[in-house]
Amino acid sequence: MKRGFATRWVLTPLLAFLLAAAAHADVSAAAAVPAPAADTSYATVRPGRALRFPGDLGAHPRFRTEWWYVTGWLHTAAGAPLGFQITFFRERPDIWRGNPSAFTPRQILIAHCALADPAKGSLWRAQRIERAGFGLAGARIGDTAVWIGRWHLVHRDGVYRGRCEGANFRLDLAFTPTEPPVPNGVDGYSRKGADPDAASEYYSIPQLRVSGRIDRRGHAEPVTGDAWLDHEWSSVYLERSAVGWDWIGVNLRDGGSVMAFRIRGANGAVLWAGGTVTDPHRRIRILSPDEVRFTPLRDWTSPRTGIRYPIEWRIHAGDLRVTLRPLLADQENDARATSGAVYWEGAVRALSQGRVVGHGYLELTGYGAPLRLR
Questions:
Q1: Burial 274-297 (b: 16+ CB within 10 A, else e)
Q2: What mean pLDDT do residues 229-245 have?
Q3: pTM of the predicted model, to two decimals?
Q4: CATH topology of domain 13-25+53-364
Q5: What is the 3-state secondary structure (H, E, C) of 248-278?
Protein backbone atom coordinates (compact mmCIF):
# COMPACT_ATOMS: atom_id res chain seq x y z
CA MET A 1 0.00 0.00 0.00
CA LYS A 2 1.59 -0.15 0.20
CA ARG A 3 1.94 0.04 -0.67
CA GLY A 4 2.65 0.77 0.20
CA PHE A 5 3.72 3.42 2.94
CA ALA A 6 3.14 7.13 2.59
CA THR A 7 5.08 9.62 4.62
CA ARG A 8 4.23 11.67 7.69
CA TRP A 9 5.96 14.86 6.61
CA VAL A 10 7.96 16.83 9.13
CA LEU A 11 10.77 19.33 8.64
CA THR A 12 13.75 17.00 8.85
CA PRO A 13 17.06 18.92 8.76
CA LEU A 14 17.67 18.26 5.06
CA LEU A 15 14.11 19.01 3.99
CA ALA A 16 14.17 22.22 6.03
CA PHE A 17 17.39 23.21 4.25
CA LEU A 18 15.87 22.54 0.82
CA LEU A 19 12.80 24.63 1.56
CA ALA A 20 14.88 27.44 3.04
CA ALA A 21 17.15 27.46 -0.01
CA ALA A 22 14.13 27.75 -2.28
CA ALA A 23 12.70 30.61 -0.23
CA HIS A 24 15.88 32.69 -0.17
CA ALA A 25 17.63 31.92 -3.47
CA ASP A 26 17.79 34.78 -6.00
CA VAL A 27 16.05 37.41 -3.85
CA SER A 28 16.05 40.07 -6.56
CA ALA A 29 14.20 37.85 -9.02
CA ALA A 30 11.70 36.71 -6.42
CA ALA A 31 10.88 40.30 -5.52
CA ALA A 32 9.60 40.90 -9.06
CA VAL A 33 6.86 38.25 -8.90
CA PRO A 34 3.56 38.29 -6.97
CA ALA A 35 3.38 37.52 -3.26
CA PRO A 36 3.71 33.82 -2.31
CA ALA A 37 0.65 31.62 -2.59
CA ALA A 38 0.30 27.97 -1.66
CA ASP A 39 0.29 25.54 -4.57
CA THR A 40 -2.72 23.31 -3.99
CA SER A 41 -3.40 22.39 -7.61
CA TYR A 42 -2.95 18.66 -7.06
CA ALA A 43 -4.58 16.17 -9.39
CA THR A 44 -7.41 14.17 -7.81
CA VAL A 45 -8.03 10.44 -7.91
CA ARG A 46 -11.44 9.67 -9.39
CA PRO A 47 -13.25 6.42 -10.26
CA GLY A 48 -13.74 5.52 -13.90
CA ARG A 49 -10.16 5.91 -15.08
CA ALA A 50 -8.72 2.54 -16.06
CA LEU A 51 -5.02 1.93 -15.54
CA ARG A 52 -2.96 2.30 -18.71
CA PHE A 53 0.30 0.49 -19.36
CA PRO A 54 3.12 1.04 -19.89
CA GLY A 55 2.46 4.71 -19.07
CA ASP A 56 1.26 4.08 -15.51
CA LEU A 57 4.51 2.32 -14.70
CA GLY A 58 6.05 5.79 -14.59
CA ALA A 59 5.66 8.85 -12.37
CA HIS A 60 2.50 10.95 -11.93
CA PRO A 61 3.98 14.29 -10.82
CA ARG A 62 0.67 16.20 -10.65
CA PHE A 63 -0.37 14.07 -7.66
CA ARG A 64 0.89 14.90 -4.20
CA THR A 65 2.33 11.52 -3.16
CA GLU A 66 3.52 8.44 -5.03
CA TRP A 67 5.54 5.34 -4.19
CA TRP A 68 7.11 2.27 -5.73
CA TYR A 69 7.51 -0.54 -3.18
CA VAL A 70 9.41 -3.75 -3.79
CA THR A 71 9.44 -6.27 -0.94
CA GLY A 72 10.24 -9.95 -0.88
CA TRP A 73 12.16 -12.99 0.28
CA LEU A 74 15.70 -13.94 -0.68
CA HIS A 75 17.69 -17.13 -0.20
CA THR A 76 21.47 -17.43 -0.21
CA ALA A 77 23.27 -20.33 -1.89
CA ALA A 78 23.36 -22.00 1.54
CA GLY A 79 19.57 -21.65 1.82
CA ALA A 80 19.51 -18.93 4.50
CA PRO A 81 16.30 -16.82 4.29
CA LEU A 82 16.36 -13.02 4.18
CA GLY A 83 13.74 -10.33 3.65
CA PHE A 84 14.27 -7.08 1.74
CA GLN A 85 12.63 -3.75 1.00
CA ILE A 86 13.49 -1.19 -1.69
CA THR A 87 11.11 1.77 -1.70
CA PHE A 88 11.06 5.09 -3.54
CA PHE A 89 8.66 7.89 -2.66
CA ARG A 90 7.94 10.99 -4.73
CA GLU A 91 6.35 13.95 -2.95
CA ARG A 92 5.15 17.21 -4.50
CA PRO A 93 5.53 19.77 -1.70
CA ASP A 94 2.79 22.28 -0.99
CA ILE A 95 4.98 25.34 -1.63
CA TRP A 96 4.95 28.43 -3.81
CA ARG A 97 5.46 27.24 -7.38
CA GLY A 98 5.83 30.85 -8.58
CA ASN A 99 9.37 31.00 -7.18
CA PRO A 100 11.62 31.32 -10.25
CA SER A 101 14.65 29.84 -8.51
CA ALA A 102 15.99 26.58 -9.93
CA PHE A 103 16.55 25.54 -6.30
CA THR A 104 12.81 25.39 -5.59
CA PRO A 105 12.09 21.76 -4.54
CA ARG A 106 9.10 21.11 -6.80
CA GLN A 107 9.48 17.35 -6.30
CA ILE A 108 11.15 15.54 -3.39
CA LEU A 109 12.46 11.97 -3.66
CA ILE A 110 12.85 9.69 -0.64
CA ALA A 111 14.16 6.12 -0.59
CA HIS A 112 14.21 3.41 2.08
CA CYS A 113 16.35 0.28 1.85
CA ALA A 114 16.30 -2.62 4.32
CA LEU A 115 17.51 -6.20 4.64
CA ALA A 116 15.86 -8.42 7.28
CA ASP A 117 18.58 -10.76 8.52
CA PRO A 118 17.90 -13.41 11.21
CA ALA A 119 21.66 -13.72 11.80
CA LYS A 120 21.80 -10.01 12.72
CA GLY A 121 18.51 -10.11 14.63
CA SER A 122 17.27 -6.85 13.11
CA LEU A 123 17.32 -4.83 9.91
CA TRP A 124 20.25 -3.60 7.90
CA ARG A 125 18.70 -0.31 6.84
CA ALA A 126 19.46 2.97 5.10
CA GLN A 127 17.51 5.98 3.79
CA ARG A 128 17.99 8.89 1.40
CA ILE A 129 16.21 12.18 0.65
CA GLU A 130 16.89 14.60 -2.21
CA ARG A 131 15.06 17.15 -4.34
CA ALA A 132 14.54 16.24 -8.00
CA GLY A 133 16.78 17.92 -10.54
CA PHE A 134 20.43 18.80 -11.07
CA GLY A 135 21.02 15.13 -11.91
CA LEU A 136 20.73 14.31 -8.21
CA ALA A 137 17.35 12.56 -8.18
CA GLY A 138 14.28 12.10 -10.33
CA ALA A 139 11.23 10.09 -11.33
CA ARG A 140 10.56 9.52 -15.03
CA ILE A 141 7.14 9.81 -16.68
CA GLY A 142 6.09 6.94 -18.97
CA ASP A 143 8.02 4.06 -17.38
CA THR A 144 9.56 3.18 -14.03
CA ALA A 145 12.85 4.99 -13.47
CA VAL A 146 13.32 6.55 -10.02
CA TRP A 147 16.68 7.36 -8.51
CA ILE A 148 18.62 9.20 -5.86
CA GLY A 149 22.29 9.23 -6.75
CA ARG A 150 23.35 5.61 -7.30
CA TRP A 151 20.20 4.25 -5.66
CA HIS A 152 17.62 3.34 -8.30
CA LEU A 153 14.64 1.28 -9.39
CA VAL A 154 14.49 1.06 -13.19
CA HIS A 155 12.31 -0.93 -15.60
CA ARG A 156 14.05 -1.84 -18.84
CA ASP A 157 13.50 -4.65 -21.39
CA GLY A 158 10.78 -6.18 -19.23
CA VAL A 159 12.92 -6.43 -16.07
CA TYR A 160 13.07 -4.20 -12.99
CA ARG A 161 16.49 -3.54 -11.47
CA GLY A 162 16.98 -2.15 -7.99
CA ARG A 163 20.09 -0.96 -6.22
CA CYS A 164 20.63 0.58 -2.80
CA GLU A 165 23.24 0.50 -0.07
CA GLY A 166 23.96 1.56 3.46
CA ALA A 167 26.65 1.20 6.07
CA ASN A 168 28.10 -2.31 5.63
CA PHE A 169 25.43 -3.66 3.23
CA ARG A 170 24.30 -3.39 -0.37
CA LEU A 171 21.46 -4.80 -2.52
CA ASP A 172 21.79 -5.21 -6.29
CA LEU A 173 18.76 -7.14 -7.53
CA ALA A 174 16.75 -7.90 -10.69
CA PHE A 175 12.99 -8.52 -10.62
CA THR A 176 11.36 -10.39 -13.51
CA PRO A 177 7.54 -10.27 -13.77
CA THR A 178 5.71 -13.55 -14.35
CA GLU A 179 2.27 -11.96 -14.79
CA PRO A 180 0.73 -8.61 -15.77
CA PRO A 181 0.01 -5.87 -13.20
CA VAL A 182 -2.99 -6.58 -10.96
CA PRO A 183 -5.34 -3.58 -10.44
CA ASN A 184 -6.52 -3.03 -6.87
CA GLY A 185 -10.01 -1.71 -6.26
CA VAL A 186 -12.22 -0.97 -9.27
CA ASP A 187 -9.90 -0.74 -12.29
CA GLY A 188 -7.17 0.57 -9.97
CA TYR A 189 -9.34 3.06 -8.03
CA SER A 190 -8.66 1.97 -4.44
CA ARG A 191 -10.88 3.47 -1.72
CA LYS A 192 -9.29 4.21 1.65
CA GLY A 193 -12.38 5.43 3.50
CA ALA A 194 -16.05 6.27 3.40
CA ASP A 195 -15.20 9.58 1.74
CA PRO A 196 -14.66 8.73 -1.95
CA ASP A 197 -11.96 11.42 -2.15
CA ALA A 198 -9.81 9.34 0.22
CA ALA A 199 -8.45 7.03 -2.46
CA SER A 200 -5.47 6.13 -4.59
CA GLU A 201 -4.71 4.68 -7.97
CA TYR A 202 -3.05 1.40 -7.17
CA TYR A 203 -1.74 -1.75 -8.78
CA SER A 204 0.50 -4.62 -7.69
CA ILE A 205 2.83 -6.97 -9.51
CA PRO A 206 3.06 -10.14 -7.41
CA GLN A 207 5.15 -13.26 -8.07
CA LEU A 208 8.25 -11.41 -9.27
CA ARG A 209 11.27 -13.69 -9.71
CA VAL A 210 14.40 -12.29 -8.04
CA SER A 211 18.07 -12.76 -8.78
CA GLY A 212 21.17 -10.75 -7.95
CA ARG A 213 23.70 -10.14 -5.23
CA ILE A 214 23.83 -8.81 -1.72
CA ASP A 215 26.78 -7.66 0.31
CA ARG A 216 27.07 -7.74 4.11
CA ARG A 217 30.23 -6.35 5.72
CA GLY A 218 32.19 -6.81 2.49
CA HIS A 219 31.01 -10.39 1.90
CA ALA A 220 29.18 -10.54 -1.45
CA GLU A 221 27.03 -13.52 -2.40
CA PRO A 222 24.38 -14.43 -4.98
CA VAL A 223 20.73 -14.67 -3.98
CA THR A 224 17.44 -15.76 -5.53
CA GLY A 225 13.87 -15.36 -4.37
CA ASP A 226 10.45 -13.90 -5.03
CA ALA A 227 9.07 -10.40 -4.59
CA TRP A 228 6.07 -8.10 -4.75
CA LEU A 229 5.87 -4.62 -6.32
CA ASP A 230 3.29 -2.01 -5.34
CA HIS A 231 2.85 1.29 -7.19
CA GLU A 232 0.39 3.80 -5.80
CA TRP A 233 -0.32 7.53 -6.20
CA SER A 234 -2.75 9.91 -4.54
CA SER A 235 -3.35 13.48 -3.40
CA VAL A 236 -5.72 12.68 -0.49
CA TYR A 237 -4.72 9.29 0.84
CA LEU A 238 -6.45 9.12 4.23
CA GLU A 239 -9.44 10.65 5.93
CA ARG A 240 -8.53 13.01 8.75
CA SER A 241 -9.73 10.57 11.41
CA ALA A 242 -7.33 7.83 10.24
CA VAL A 243 -4.15 7.20 12.25
CA GLY A 244 -2.51 4.45 10.18
CA TRP A 245 -2.95 1.09 8.49
CA ASP A 246 -2.03 -2.58 8.44
CA TRP A 247 -1.17 -4.11 5.04
CA ILE A 248 -0.06 -7.46 3.65
CA GLY A 249 1.21 -8.60 0.26
CA VAL A 250 1.75 -12.36 0.06
CA ASN A 251 2.85 -14.60 -2.82
CA LEU A 252 1.12 -17.95 -2.40
CA ARG A 253 2.93 -21.18 -3.26
CA ASP A 254 0.11 -22.31 -5.57
CA GLY A 255 0.80 -19.29 -7.83
CA GLY A 256 -1.92 -17.06 -6.40
CA SER A 257 -1.51 -13.91 -4.33
CA VAL A 258 -3.29 -11.83 -1.70
CA MET A 259 -3.15 -8.13 -0.88
CA ALA A 260 -5.23 -6.93 2.06
CA PHE A 261 -5.31 -3.82 4.22
CA ARG A 262 -7.28 -2.09 6.91
CA ILE A 263 -7.30 1.62 7.81
CA ARG A 264 -7.32 2.31 11.55
CA GLY A 265 -8.83 5.19 13.45
CA ALA A 266 -8.39 6.21 17.07
CA ASN A 267 -8.41 3.37 19.62
CA GLY A 268 -7.87 0.82 16.85
CA ALA A 269 -11.29 1.26 15.25
CA VAL A 270 -11.41 -0.07 11.66
CA LEU A 271 -12.46 2.76 9.33
CA TRP A 272 -12.05 0.90 6.03
CA ALA A 273 -10.64 -2.29 4.58
CA GLY A 274 -10.05 -3.86 1.21
CA GLY A 275 -8.01 -6.32 -0.74
CA THR A 276 -7.34 -8.28 -3.92
CA VAL A 277 -6.95 -12.04 -4.27
CA THR A 278 -5.71 -13.85 -7.37
CA ASP A 279 -5.95 -17.61 -7.86
CA PRO A 280 -3.42 -19.89 -9.61
CA HIS A 281 -5.19 -19.16 -12.92
CA ARG A 282 -4.71 -15.39 -12.33
CA ARG A 283 -8.39 -14.70 -11.93
CA ILE A 284 -8.82 -11.55 -9.85
CA ARG A 285 -11.29 -11.05 -6.99
CA ILE A 286 -11.69 -7.59 -5.45
CA LEU A 287 -12.65 -7.75 -1.76
CA SER A 288 -15.20 -5.50 -0.10
CA PRO A 289 -14.51 -4.06 3.39
CA ASP A 290 -16.59 -6.72 5.13
CA GLU A 291 -14.57 -9.52 3.50
CA VAL A 292 -11.30 -8.49 5.19
CA ARG A 293 -10.46 -9.09 8.83
CA PHE A 294 -7.16 -8.71 10.73
CA THR A 295 -6.94 -10.39 14.16
CA PRO A 296 -3.72 -9.75 16.16
CA LEU A 297 -2.14 -12.77 17.87
CA ARG A 298 1.22 -11.59 19.27
CA ASP A 299 2.84 -8.24 20.06
CA TRP A 300 6.45 -7.08 20.13
CA THR A 301 7.78 -3.91 21.76
CA SER A 302 10.73 -2.08 20.24
CA PRO A 303 13.65 -1.68 22.68
CA ARG A 304 14.64 1.53 20.85
CA THR A 305 11.38 3.46 20.47
CA GLY A 306 9.10 1.71 22.97
CA ILE A 307 6.46 1.29 20.25
CA ARG A 308 4.34 -1.85 20.56
CA TYR A 309 3.48 -3.62 17.28
CA PRO A 310 1.19 -6.60 16.63
CA ILE A 311 3.56 -8.72 14.53
CA GLU A 312 1.61 -12.00 14.26
CA TRP A 313 -1.88 -12.10 12.76
CA ARG A 314 -4.78 -14.22 11.67
CA ILE A 315 -5.99 -12.89 8.31
CA HIS A 316 -9.39 -13.42 6.67
CA ALA A 317 -9.36 -12.24 3.05
CA GLY A 318 -12.41 -13.49 1.18
CA ASP A 319 -12.26 -17.30 1.34
CA LEU A 320 -8.59 -17.28 2.33
CA ARG A 321 -7.62 -17.94 5.96
CA VAL A 322 -3.94 -17.67 6.91
CA THR A 323 -1.77 -16.98 9.93
CA LEU A 324 1.19 -14.62 9.46
CA ARG A 325 4.40 -15.20 11.41
CA PRO A 326 7.43 -12.91 11.08
CA LEU A 327 10.86 -14.03 9.91
CA LEU A 328 12.16 -12.12 12.97
CA ALA A 329 10.49 -9.86 15.51
CA ASP A 330 12.66 -6.77 15.13
CA GLN A 331 11.84 -5.38 11.69
CA GLU A 332 11.17 -1.82 12.81
CA ASN A 333 12.31 0.88 10.38
CA ASP A 334 13.12 4.27 11.87
CA ALA A 335 12.79 6.72 8.96
CA ARG A 336 12.49 9.93 10.95
CA ALA A 337 15.52 11.40 9.17
CA THR A 338 13.65 11.39 5.84
CA SER A 339 9.90 10.83 6.09
CA GLY A 340 9.50 11.60 9.77
CA ALA A 341 7.90 8.22 10.51
CA VAL A 342 8.71 5.03 12.40
CA TYR A 343 7.02 1.87 11.12
CA TRP A 344 7.29 -1.93 11.14
CA GLU A 345 7.88 -3.46 7.70
CA GLY A 346 8.75 -7.13 7.77
CA ALA A 347 9.07 -10.46 6.03
CA VAL A 348 6.37 -12.95 7.08
CA ARG A 349 5.41 -16.55 6.38
CA ALA A 350 1.76 -17.38 5.65
CA LEU A 351 0.54 -20.62 7.23
CA SER A 352 -2.65 -22.63 6.86
CA GLN A 353 -3.27 -25.51 9.26
CA GLY A 354 0.36 -25.29 10.33
CA ARG A 355 1.73 -25.58 6.79
CA VAL A 356 3.58 -22.75 5.00
CA VAL A 357 1.48 -21.71 1.99
CA GLY A 358 3.18 -18.44 1.08
CA HIS A 359 5.73 -15.72 1.82
CA GLY A 360 5.34 -11.98 1.81
CA TYR A 361 5.49 -8.74 3.74
CA LEU A 362 3.51 -7.09 6.53
CA GLU A 363 3.43 -3.33 7.06
CA LEU A 364 2.27 -1.63 10.27
CA THR A 365 2.02 2.18 10.42
CA GLY A 366 0.70 4.72 12.88
CA TYR A 367 1.44 2.76 16.06
CA GLY A 368 3.90 5.23 17.55
CA ALA A 369 2.12 8.38 16.40
CA PRO A 370 -0.70 9.06 13.93
CA LEU A 371 0.27 9.47 10.29
CA ARG A 372 -0.55 12.88 8.88
CA LEU A 373 -0.45 12.85 5.10
CA ARG A 374 -1.86 16.32 4.46
A1: bbbbbeeeeeeebbebebbbbeee
A2: 94
A3: 0.88
A4: AttH-like fold (2.40.370)
A5: EEEEECCCCEEEEEEEEEHHHCEEEEEEEEE
